[in-house]
Amino acid sequence: xxxxxxxxxxxxxxxxxxxxxxxxxxxxxxxxxxxxxxxxxxxxxxxxxxxxxxxxxxxxxxxxxxxxxxxxxxxxxxxxxxxxxxxxxxxxxxxxxxxxxxxxxxxxxxxxxxxxxxxxxxxxxxxxxxxxxxxxxxxxxxxxxxxxxxxxxxxxxxxxxxxxxxxxxxxxxxxxxxxxxxxxxxxxxxxxxxxxxxxxxxxxxxxxxxxxxxxxxxxxxxxxxxxxxxxxxxxxxxxxxxxxxxxxxxxxxxxxxxxxxxxxxxxxx
Length: 269
Ligand SMILES: NC(=O)C1=CN([C@@H]2O[C@H](COP(=O)(O)OP(=O)(O)OC[C@H]3O[C@@H](n4cnc5c(N)ncnc54)[C@H](O)[C@@H]3O)[C@@H](O)[C@H]2O)C=CC1
Ligand SMILES: Nc1nc(O)c(N)c(N[C@@H]2O[C@H](COP(=O)(O)O)[C@@H](O)[C@H]2O)n1
Prior knowledge:
It is a single chain. Helices cover 22% and strands 25% of the residues. It is α/β, with parallel strands linked by helices. It has one domain (30-266): Dihydrofolate Reductase, subunit A, CATH 3.40.430. It has a 9-stranded mixed beta sheet, sandwiched between helices.
């Protein structure tokens, strides 16, 4: 029996100012989804011990909070390396929940071959989650027929997104404007961006701060040590090349959940 989490109403209340309107009240006429950037980090700003190593950071209280957030968002977005590393369920396991978020996997370069045995499809078949929408490059071709069929059978699909080839890596990249436009087109009016490191660091680019409505970070009292997957966005400098802070949260509040503390704030005034 999959774990069933509970999240006390009084704890939910302290998060309320940082959450999108309740799902049934969300405004589909907005021009873009409500975006919550949320993740769990160590004291040395790591998401995991190493790329591909799923690492437990959250304690039971903050883990339940993350799953409560999943009851309040229409979608949950992760990068493909998170899927390849964690085989995540990307569902909500709050006891008695009637809502499941739509998993969104950013996979511009078709690195993931979905399999029936993947946990995200298993929970979907058990009625405890939804099948993923996989964001791929607009010109992607030769989609594996078996993958298309597996997604269709479970209610998921591939979604083509305008992309540009990175001059640095040669790989296809999406702009966050186009990622959010694709979600809006699916009437997904809110999304929690959960990671991993590359996804979070790309969204923390100052060019995208106006797209982020809320930031909710779980900080665990753990140092993971060097070599982890680190949240540290690309450096920003002034005209003279002097480094500047990339981002600072405002409207900050801190909430203890067991041994962890949850930091809430916003990147917009
Ligand atoms: N502690 C936490 O809250 C979380 C931890 N994790 C951990 O993070 C690690 C995975 O993080 P990363 O290796 O950084 O991978 P990632 O999950 O950020 O995925 C990176 C991949 O996503 C795609 N991608 C990212 N940004 C894109 C863009 N703008 N356009 C197109 N494609 C884009 C690219 O294919 C890139 O290789 C895993 O070890 C996982 O356990 C993942 C999520 C949350
Ligand atoms: N909030 C949080 N705390 C941790 O300690 C974590 N390791 C993560 N990881 C994220 O949650 C995904 C797992 O989701 P499921 O529980 O399998 O639905 C994992 O892939 C990361 O996105 N998050």
